[in-house]
Amino acid sequence: MMHKYKISEAKNCLVDKHIAFIGDSRIRQLFYSFVKIINPQFKEEGNKHENIPFEDKTASVKVDFLWHPEVNGSMKQCIKVWTEDSVAKPHVVVAGAATWSIKIHNGSNEALSQYKMNITSIAPLLEKLAKTSDVYWVLQDPVYEDLLSENRKMITNEKIDAYNEAAISILNSSTRNSKSNVKMFSVSKLIAQETIMESLDGLHLPESSRETSAMILMNVYCNKILKPVDGSCCQPQPPLTLLQKLAACFFTLSIIGYLIFYIIHRNAHRKNKPCTDLESGEEKKNIINPPVSPLGILLQSFCKLGLIMAYFYICDRANLFMKENKFYTHSTFFIPIIYILVLGVFYNENTKETKVLNREQTDEWKGWMQLVILIYHISGASTFLPVYMHIRVLVAAYLFQTGYGHFSYFWIKGDFGIHRVCQVLFRLNFLVVVLCIVMDRPYQFYYFVPLVTVWFMVIYVTLALWPQIIQKKANGNCFWHFGLLLKLAFLLLCICFLAYSQGAFEKIFSLWPLSKCFELKGNVYEWWFRWRLDRYVVFHGMLFAFIYLALQKRQVLSEGKGEPLFSNKVSNFLLFISVVSFLTYSIWASSCKNKAECNELHPSVSVVQILAFILIRNIPGYARSVYSSFFAWFGKISLELFICQYHIWLAADTRGILVLIPGNPMLNIIVSTFIFVCVAHEISQITNDLAQIIIPKDNSSLLKRLACIAAFFCGLLILSSVQDKSRH
Fold first, then answer.
1. Which of 249, 257, 362, 428 pairs with 503 at a CA distance of 20 to 30 A?
2. Measuring CA to CA, which residue among 308, 311, 313 is closest to residue 254?
3. Are strands 626-628 and 348-350 parallel, antiparallel or unpaired?
4. Cα–Cα distance between 361 and 628 in angstroms, integer?
């Protein structure tokens, strides 16, 4: 993966550095493209056959081009000066030449022999210089022979290959007992093989190609200094942190513990196995297999989780698998969307109940939204604004379901016990907490989980605080409905205040220990931005649930199988309004020109398309009576899919794509997707199993477990603080 360096990043990397380019017109092209990363306004002017200096005084960066079109005594003398102890040496030297030698000597074999002799004499000097500086020898790019002018016709690709082979063999064998320190810069040659036909003269690369070569050169030098996440080349593997080492020890012990437990359990089972009476042929006793103990489930879960986490680490932290940049095209996004929609429609089943937003339907909704979001991420569709705006609605719809689902539960059940809260928080956060430790990432990095966690707590606090108003109480007196609406109005007021008071919001979440959870890159701005982007939609979900349940209680709705939700006239009218609203929002989102302006309007208008979809999906009785089991299956593991994609489907923290099988994109995506979905499903099972054991229903046992969990997080915070100090 290639990181695209910004001006500020390039200057930060190259501060107080001196870079020297030595060679012919092709090296001069590379020099210009490199300088333009630092200063895009730098003009390509002046005498082309002279030295060209560049200096940025603000960052004390000095970049020089030295005109030496042939590998000869002149180039040798230039390099020899830098090898002397008393002379200041460039930090980076980029050298290369050959086409002038071919041109001047008309492609003669004698010129090639002389080139070999000259480069042989320069090789020890380059090797000596490479001990203190980064030295790159640029291999010659191929030419497009049909476009070459008459005085360049002798420069053939056959000759260029011969000169490249000479340079490689001599420079690589310049040190007898160790690997050469002079690095071969061959990427420009590979790029030219694909793009040289776009050249204006057949010799020099088109501008876009040399810009890529210069950016790769910047990656080669700067990645090991700035360590960008999406620069997968040329930087060492990050050292294991203390928390990662402790996690590795824990999972290793869990695997060993499970193996011991399994062997003991298996031996005990063999001893208890019924023996057969030889005379009668009947078993003497019939033993029923005992149920698996909680300890066995616990060890098995942590054993499987340990192996899965090892796969996560290998995929996205070790330098074992390659990663590649995303390149968006409309076909890479829309064709998979059409494919999964056809699959989803094919797997239709009848729902168990026909209520609005029944369980099968909400699972289906989560499923197809998650699949669309996954395709959006892997295709890099965030660069296309209309798609981005529609994906923002899908994220908002998830939060809408959070508001709707949790409000409905508390309103109907009236269960504000600590067990329910702990179960929800555990299921939401377990995987993310483990990944924060194993992958060395802050909690806020997995932004969606903090978002749904905070909103769940907001819903809980709003409804649990005095006076606790639930459906059972409100049915006896309409006054309680008014009381609940007052609560919701106060919640809306608080949301508006925090949305338009960034200072107050940041002060709240900058308090320790909240800051450890919600800071990203040293501040909580990213958290404020994410929260503010969908600030009203959870409230909308709660309000919708309240109105729907009130109408349902008064039997205003017809939720029988095959029946429209309202009378035919009302249903047709609402369907028409919903379709128009849905299409109007899509037209508005598709006409967006400025992301910042559209994001500002999004919190207020996203609910239009969400409500329109709910009505279209639920008003017709036949639509409400069926669901897609294909989408519903994915919906049940949607949270795990969303989190796991960061490291084992995408790569470099979602900025790239994981490459398990190089050179075959289609096979790679099939294999990586299969593993990714299987892992997400397994983690969902592990989370459910552990939730039953770690969060018991008995309050006294639960309080003891919570004390242990609190101690664990205190230790985690202390170790994290020690880790941060050691880094700084």
1. 428
2. 308
3. antiparallel
4. 8
